[in-house]
Here is the input.
Amino acid sequence: MLDALNHTKSARTVAVAPIILGLLVWATSAGFAQDKGKSAGGDAVAQLYAAAKKEGTVVIWGPTDALIYQRMQAALDKQYPGIKIEHFESIPEPLVQRIIAESQAGKPAAVDIIQSGSLRALRPLIDRDMLAAYPGWEKDFGLDAVYANQRFVGAYNLTLPIAYNTKMVSAQEAPKGWEDLADPKWKGRKIIIEARLVPFAMLGTEWGKPKTAELTKRILSQQPLIVQGGTTVANALAGGQVSIAVGTYAYTIERLKRQGAAVDWVPVSPLPVLTSAVGVLKTARHPNAARFFAGWMGTAEGQNIRYATTGQANEVGRTAIGAVAERIRAAQPAVILETDKTFATILEIQRELGKMLGALR
Here is the structure.
């Protein structure tokens, strides 16, 4: 996961006018209420809500800013009262290990929903079959961002483009593809790359290891700056320390643009896209509330609240929203989406590329 803890902290810097947010929540809630009544899944959602209300609470762990859940709670209280959200904010890896350790000790975890900034962080739970499948997310809530045989709902995406400083590079000069990063004109600390090399590892699932390794080697020979953390990458780009950046998120660049920074990004093809998802544990103490809340977060209501608060949302697929999604729709690049079918390969290639980077240091 790229800098999950840092980007949740940076989310707090996004200010949203209360009046605008109130109108947004009201509009999306009203729209979904109408659609829910007309849809074939309306009765099933209503029945699930009734069961969730009896349980009264849903406990969720993950890296999402608490402010998002405060605003989601306000929306739920108006449309679906009677469900209290209890949230613990942390990066997912230690939470996953805690859940596994408690399971091995014969203790059910005190959590209903686990969330991560990338599916890879939750792989140990998938491997141990600790997550419950729920077909209703697709059938009744109408969601298309559902993964791992209906065990995960997509919470948001993290698109990994090539970004550039618009004062140092024009849109015409900016790299149009990944191979362009090997052009000698970018040699000499003009590129900054996040040290975990996740975009390149994801390219490897499309191109294969040999081609990916060769291109990565050529790009690393350009003497780029190598740093830890997507936020560090974005800030260095915005500050004019480098011309080109790889390893930060498109939504982060969009946020910096709104704040007046001279940055932009290229929807290169293929375009790596990470998947943040939520899953319900088989040992959930509030299983109906968990299924309901996970599904609701994937609807227009939940997505719009998240987007208005942090700029994050599902950026690919039928229900994608926001500035990044609009750019992707317009450019129509091939998308390399992190799913349960690709994350093992991504990790394998990432380890191989990491050895290459270590040898060059």
Notes: The longest strand covers residues 271-280. Confidence is low (pLDDT under 50) at residues 1-40.
